[in-house]
Inverse folding.
C-alpha cells in the first residue's frame, strides 16, 4: 500500500509541477506562448490573445495549486480540470511532439483522478 501512496504522490507532484511551471511561465515569458493561442480565440467574447494567455496561465496555476492542496475533492476537481484543459489543447496542436506529450499528461491526470 505504501508504494501506491508513493506513486500517487509522484503523479501529483509531477502533474502539479508541469501546470505550475507552464502557468507561471506564461506570465514571465508571454512572447514564447502567444503563438500557441489559436487565431479563432483572438477576439472571442471581445477578449484579445494577450488576455486569453493570462486566463490560460491563471487556469494552469489554479490547477497546479489545486493538485498540491491535500483536499480530496479539490484534487479531483483539479485532475478533471487538467484533463479537460489537455483535451482542449490536443484539439488544437494535432499529432506532433507537443501532442504526444499532452496525451501522456492527459493519461496521468485521468489515472490520478482514480488514485485520489
Amino acid at each position: 500500500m505504501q508504494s501506491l501512496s508513493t506513486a500517487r504522490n509522484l503523479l501529483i507532484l509531477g502533474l502539479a509541477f508541469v501546470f505550475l511551471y507552464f502557468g507561471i511561465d506564461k506570465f514571465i515569458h508571454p512572447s514564447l506562448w502567444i503563438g500557441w493561442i489559436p487565431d479563432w480565440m483572438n477576439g472571442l467574447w471581445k477578449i484579445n490573445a494577450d488576455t486569453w494567455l493570462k486566463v490560460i496561465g491563471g487556469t494552469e496555476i489554479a490547477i497546479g495549486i489545486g493538485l498540491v492542496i491535500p483536499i480530496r475533492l479539490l484534487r479531483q476537481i483539479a485532475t478533471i480540470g487538467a484533463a479537460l484543459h489537455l483535451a482542449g489543447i490536443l484539439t488544437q496542436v494535432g499529432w506532433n511532439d507537443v501532442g504526444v506529450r499532452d496525451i501522456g499528461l492527459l493519461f496521468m491526470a485521468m489515472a490520478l483522478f482514480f488514485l485520489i
Summary: The chain has one domain: 2-115. The first helix runs from residue 2 to 28. The radius of gyration is 15 Å.
